[in-house]
């Protein structure tokens, strides 16, 4: 683990490239350090200046008469390596390279970046950047702004890590507008050395950081990132909210199975971030909208929300937003209903959401809000107020702030006003009550808090390792396919059986007579499929016939299948005859090797439905036991499996076990590019299921 204290909380700084030229980055950075109220000592380094902004300058970092914790390099890219060598000789403990012109500009810049990385490693100097915006430590103990931005944020308990300097600069402006304070702000740029994982390890232990915000474009080491963030969110219970940019992948390779086609990188990123316990958001403003709730409100005990309003329409909108986010707009207790009857006029409908009606004054609204907050059926409250002649919005904000301090429940205020909104926000913020322009935003924030609370309280399970697998059998099969692109279906079935994944009974024959004889033990109806290295997609090639009821039909379809293959000059390795599955629920279970995350498993509703509805979920391998069940629960098809509308309950345990066994298979054998079990037919609870088709694509 890198020691990042000299980088993020330095006592002495040298700004190499500090400039007297007004408006230059070197001038702005040095000025920002001075103006931020930095509690340490800063030295400007410039061979062409005697002083910078009234502070004595030194021609070289080697001339600075002090030990240096942090060197900030703001010079042309071509000479950064020379400056870094001087920093190494001086014993500088960390550096920030703000200079651009490295990997982001192409091959020439990438070579320069590799050089400075090697120098940093030679001298064991943690290097942030290059091509970064800098850092801000807003702690009263440090008060440091090394960026070339315009904003020094207030101190708070939120830390923000960003891969993009431009996004970082925008975020600082927004944070100021949203009244959000920071503990640390770090722009890490090209991450030649210090990366998101190093910074997360630091923030994990940082007592001044309660909430972590991330802007990411890629990951340095996904496996390490997963371990660190799971630890932060599970054991340290610090929420992480992230924007992952690049939701589309133009030019994605056309996959040769359903699994590959559906496993777009963004879907896998979603699954991966879920496994980390990270809450993904879409917009920068959402980061701050939600972060202020996490930073200053208690986590709700559950998902039951109380809604109060002085306008019926707003209450309906809030209730819709809550329900759509998975919150429960629950009924008030009898005690609360009785309290409200004494507060409200007789014409008011006592229900959740509660509309105190448009003629409500300040006292009616506030007493009703108190009653809801005291209700044991309510875990959180979204308080809505529209402009009214009966009460000033500022007064409502003031009263909400006063009572919020007396209840250990999250309160979200949606006071829809254009009259001095900044003043209203400031009044609420005195009591750390988050303000939202519309109730939908408050409901979204609350839903994320519920999700994180449930994550921290989830049952912890391990990665289950099955000991009853026959790895030697799989190795034996794979040895036959060294120069092949895919595995023939019978051998695919044998691989599944070696990992105790149930397969619908089958046999392979080379003649009609043999097929007629063997089907007597299998029983009708049956399916016929061609086994050929020339045929990957059997249906399109006329290489499969299903639901064959008797011997006469078997003869007809067998001959037709053979003729179909001969017409296209396809070689035939054999004919697979398989028992026709009884009616159940078709699902798809698959795996693929992702270029970023490695092995990934997939689950969804099978057959043609996977293509039409794309109702699938993913997990990065290896997979914990509970993750397998969560995969199933995430799909819309789960409602069918668990017996929606008093229907049959299906064997979810079987699906979960197959997912875990498939995860173990792809972790133990690195040969598979894609695996597609479609369909895996599952039957009623305790009756299991079977793989009825399997496709294995090799790397």
UniProtKB/TrEMBL annotation:
<feature type="domain" description="ATP-grasp">
    <location>
        <begin position="493"/>
        <end position="529"/>
    </location>
</feature>
<dbReference type="GO" id="GO:0046872">
    <property type="term" value="F:metal ion binding"/>
</dbReference>
<dbReference type="InterPro" id="IPR036291">
    <property type="entry name" value="NAD(P)-bd_dom_sf"/>
</dbReference>
<dbReference type="Pfam" id="PF13380">
    <property type="entry name" value="CoA_binding_2"/>
</dbReference>
<dbReference type="GO" id="GO:0043758">
    <property type="term" value="F:acetate-CoA ligase (ADP-forming) activity"/>
</dbReference>
<dbReference type="InterPro" id="IPR016102">
    <property type="entry name" value="Succinyl-CoA_synth-like"/>
</dbReference>
<dbReference type="InterPro" id="IPR003781">
    <property type="entry name" value="CoA-bd"/>
</dbReference>
<dbReference type="GO" id="GO:0005524">
    <property type="term" value="F:ATP binding"/>
</dbReference>
<dbReference type="Pfam" id="PF13549">
    <property type="entry name" value="ATP-grasp_5"/>
</dbReference>
<dbReference type="Pfam" id="PF19045">
    <property type="entry name" value="Ligase_CoA_2"/>
</dbReference>
<keyword id="KW-0436">Ligase</keyword>
<dbReference type="InterPro" id="IPR032875">
    <property type="entry name" value="Succ_CoA_lig_flav_dom"/>
</dbReference>
<dbReference type="InterPro" id="IPR051538">
    <property type="entry name" value="Acyl-CoA_Synth/Transferase"/>
</dbReference>
<keyword id="KW-0547">Nucleotide-binding</keyword>
<dbReference type="Pfam" id="PF13607">
    <property type="entry name" value="Succ_CoA_lig"/>
</dbReference>
<dbReference type="InterPro" id="IPR043938">
    <property type="entry name" value="Ligase_CoA_dom"/>
</dbReference>
<dbReference type="InterPro" id="IPR013815">
    <property type="entry name" value="ATP_grasp_subdomain_1"/>
</dbReference>
<dbReference type="InterPro" id="IPR011761">
    <property type="entry name" value="ATP-grasp"/>
</dbReference>
<protein>
    <submittedName>
        <fullName>CoA-binding protein</fullName>
    </submittedName>
</protein>
<keyword id="KW-0067">ATP-binding</keyword>
């Amino acid at each position: 683990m890198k020691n990042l204290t000299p980088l993020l909380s330095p006592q002495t700084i040298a700004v190499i490239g500090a400039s007297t030229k007004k408006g230059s980055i070197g001038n702005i950075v040095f000025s920002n350090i001075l103006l931020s109220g930095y509690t340490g000592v800063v030295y400007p380094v410039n061979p062409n200046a005697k002083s910078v902004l009234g502070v004595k300058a030194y021609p070289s970092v080697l001339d600075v008469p002090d030990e240096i914790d942090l060197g900030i390099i703001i010079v042309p890219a071509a000479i950064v390596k020379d400056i870094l060598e001087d920093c190494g000789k001086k014993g500088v403990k960390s550096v920030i390279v703000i200079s651009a012109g490295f990997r982001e500009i192409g091959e020439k810049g990438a070579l320069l970046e590799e050089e400075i990385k090697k120098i940093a490693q030679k001298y064991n100097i943690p290097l942030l950047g290059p091509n970064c915006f800098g850092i801000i430590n807003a702690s009263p103990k440090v008060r440091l702004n090394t960026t070339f931005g315009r904003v020094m944020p207030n101190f708070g308990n939120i830390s923000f890590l960003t891969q993009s300097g431009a996004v970082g600069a925008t975020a600082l402006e927004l944070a100021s507008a949203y009244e959000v304070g920071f503990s640390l702000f770090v722009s890490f740029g090209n991450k030649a050395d210090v990366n998101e994982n190093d910074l997360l390890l630091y923030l994990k232990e940082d007592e001044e950081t309660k909430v972590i915000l991330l802007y990411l474009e890629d990951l340095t080491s996904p496996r390490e990132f997963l371990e660190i963030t799971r630890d932060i969110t599970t054991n340290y219970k610090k929420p992480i909210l992230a924007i992952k940019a690049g939701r589309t992948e133009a030019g994605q390779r056309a996959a040769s199975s359903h699994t590959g086609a559906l496993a777009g990188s963004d879907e896998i990123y979603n699954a991966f971030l879920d496994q980390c316990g990270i809450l993904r958001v879409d917009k920068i403003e959402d980061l701050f909208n939600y972060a202020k709730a996490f930073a200053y409100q208690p986590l709700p005990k559950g998902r039951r929300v109380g809604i109060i309003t002085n306008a019926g329409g707003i209450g309906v909108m809030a209730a819709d937003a809550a329900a759509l986010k998975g919150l429960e707009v629950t009924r008030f207790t009898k005690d609360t209903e009785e309290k409200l009857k004494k507060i409200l006029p007789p014409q008011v409908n006592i229900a959740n959401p509660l509309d105190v009606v448009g003629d409500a004054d300040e006292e009616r609204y506030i007493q009703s809000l108190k009653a809801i907050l005291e209700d044991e059926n309510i875990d959180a409250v979204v308080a809505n107020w529209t402009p009214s002649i009966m009460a000033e919005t500022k007064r409502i904000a003031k009263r909400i702030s006063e009572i919020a301090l007396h209840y250990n429940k999250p309160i979200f205020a949606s006071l829809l006003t254009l009259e001095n909104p900044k003043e209203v926000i400031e009044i609420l913020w005195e009591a750390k009550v988050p303000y939202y322009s519309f109730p939908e935003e408050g409901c979204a924030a609350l839903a994320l808090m519920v999700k994180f609370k449930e994550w921290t309280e989830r049952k912890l399970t391990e990665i289950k390792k099955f000991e009853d697998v026959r790895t030697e059998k799989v190795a034996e099969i794979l040895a036959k396919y060294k120069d092949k692109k895919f595995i023939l279906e019978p051998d695919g079935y044998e691989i599944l059986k070696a990992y105790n994944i149930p397969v619908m009974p089958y046999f392979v024959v080379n003649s009609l007579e043999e097929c007629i004889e063997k089907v007597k033990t299998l029983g009708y109806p049956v399916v016929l499929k061609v086994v050929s290295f020339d045929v990957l997609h059997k249906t399109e090639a006329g290489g499969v016939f299903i639901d064959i009821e008797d011997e006469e039909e078997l003869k007809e379809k067998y001959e037709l299948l053979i003729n179909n293959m001969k017409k296209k000059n396809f070689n035939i390795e054999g004919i697979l005859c398989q028992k026709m599955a009884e009616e159940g629920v078709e699902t798809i279970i698959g795996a693929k090797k992702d270029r970023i995350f490695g092995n990934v498993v997939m689950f969804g509703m099978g057959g043609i439905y996977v293509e039409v509805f794309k109702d699938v979920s993913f997990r990065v391998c290896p997979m914990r036991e509970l993750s397998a069940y969560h995969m199933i629960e995430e799909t819309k098809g789960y409602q069918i499996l668990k017996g929606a509308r008093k229907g049959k309950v299906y064997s979810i345990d079987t699906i979960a076990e197959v997912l875990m066994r498939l995860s173990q298979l792809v972790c133990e054998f690195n040969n598979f590019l894609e695996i597609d079990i479609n369909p895996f037919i599952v039957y009623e609870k305790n009756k299991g299921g079977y793989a009825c088709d399997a496709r294995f694509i090799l790397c």
